[in-house]
Amino acid sequence: MEVPKEMPANASESQASTSRAVTAAGCALVGVVVVLRYLGRWTLHRRVLVGKGKGEHVYGMDDIFNVLAVATFYGLCIAVFKATDRGMGTHIEVVLFEHGFQGLTDYSQAVFVCAAFYNTTLGMIKLSVLSLYLRILRGVQSQKLRIIVWVVFGIVSCNTLANVLVVIFQCWPIEAAWDVTILPQDKRCVDVNAFYLGNAITGVTTDAIVYFLSIPIIKPLQMDNKTKLQLLATMLIGGFAVVTSAVRLGFMPALLSDPDATMAMAVPMNWSIAEPAVGILVSSMPAIRAIRFLWRKPGADSYGSGAVNSTLKSRNGGHIQLYDMKNGANQVEASDVDSGKERTGDNDSEEHLFIGSYGPRGLGQISRTTELEVSYSSK
Question: What residue intervals traverse the membrane (predicted)?
Fold first, then answer.
């Protein structure tokens, strides 16, 4: 490869503005999602403080992985902006003409950082979703699904770690991965083409496993069909992440064989932004749904805790005696004493996917609730 002596005829062709727009849109989307997610968490936390689910934790391991995913996603976006400034989306002859081999080295370094952040972000998103599954399964007696989720958790963790390490140590010395001035005989590198193809294939596979695993997890939960379908639909939107992975995979062979690497990288990089942005959105949707409680008074819930002798009165006049909740017997198994019908609508069952089931710790049960009024007696 030689440095052109004059500006190429196709120098005006560029996809840089499109790359910047896609990256900026991804940053904005994830920023809004983060605000909504933790507004939902704060809403649940406020309800916990007034007695609903007292002693349970609103925040969990899925939130930790979400924070890591968001942090690495913004690292990816910064690296993409840098790569665009250094020539991504323009023809390689233009980069060489304007900046020489040093310009190509600087561009390759930015892409190297993009690859490291991209693989880390995807791994954190999948681990966040799997951690959410584990919270949901905390109240299920069967251990089979929990074991399956933990196995997938281990596979995703190992796959993420392996991908990031291969990206970082793909060449020795490490700087040979981006420094085009290092001669072939002075460096040792893995087969980068084979790695990126294998990475894309495993990405599609693990995406499909993680998101479609929501079906056997949510389907048996004891909640009304409307809420269950809403949760399933929310998680299965993650299928779009599988589609984006597959689309990105489709671009890989052409990218790896194209000599005009700076121009060919633009479109796959756009999909590399879209995929984690959608993943962060999907993994946050169950938490975002809790925002609907924001417009309710925290103390106006249909049940509470702390009553030594209290009575639940159904709306049509039936009474059900509660146990002493202060002594830890905080599970209520109730039915409508007059109609015997199961109530539908908003019964807060979904909320307890995050702050725990009604049953005592260790019983491993998810309890269904009915919409009730609470009256207290000092007798």
Answer: 20-39, 60-81, 110-135, 147-169, 194-217, 229-251, 271-288
Burial 284-315 (b: 16+ CB within 10 A, else e): bbbbbbbbebeeeebeebbbbbebeebbbebe
Could you say which DSSP state residue 368 is in? P
Residue 201 has pLDDT above 80, yes or no: yes
Residue 287 contacts by C-beta under 8 Å, 6 or more apart in sequence?
37, 38, 40, 41, 354
Q: Rounded CA gap, 255 and 261, in Å?
A: 7
Q: Which helix (H) or strand (E) holds 352?
A: helix 352-355
The percentage of residues in the chain with a pLDDT greater than 70, rounded to a whole number, is 69
Q: How many beta carbons lie within 10 A of that of residue 181, not counting itself?
A: 12
Per-residue confidence (pLDDT) for residue 305, from 0 to 100 = 35
- What does the domain layout of the chain look like in residue ranges? 16-295, 302-379
Question: By the 8 A CB rule, do 288 and 33 touch?
Answer: yes
Q: Which of 8-12, 147-151, 252-256, 285-289 has the lowest mean pLDDT?
A: 252-256
User: Helix, strand, coil: what percent of the chain each, to 5?
Assistant: 65, 5, 30
SS3 sequence of 231-266: HHHHHHCCHHHHHHHHHHHHHHHHHHHCCCHHHHCH
**Domain boundaries 16-295, corresponding CATH code:** 1.20.1070
The C-alpha atoms of residue 35 and residue 157 are separated, in whole angstroms, by: 27
> Highest-confidence range of 164-173, 335-344, 358-367, by mean pLDDT?
164-173
H or E segment to which residue 313 belongs: strand 310-314
Q: What is the pLDDT of residues 316-362, one digit of tens each?
A: 444 434 434 444 444 434 334 344 344 444 444 445 555 544 333 43
- 91: tokens are 């023809």
State which amino acid sits at residue 117.
Answer: F
CA angle at residue 183 from 81 to 95, to 5 degrees?
A: 35
- Looking at residue 130, its pLDDT comes to 92
Q: Could you read off the pLDDT of 102-118 as tens digits, one per residue?
A: 999 999 999 999 999 99
> What rounded mean pLDDT belongs to the chain?
76
Specify burial of residue 131 (Cβ count, 10 A radius: 0-12, 13-18, 19+). Answer: buried
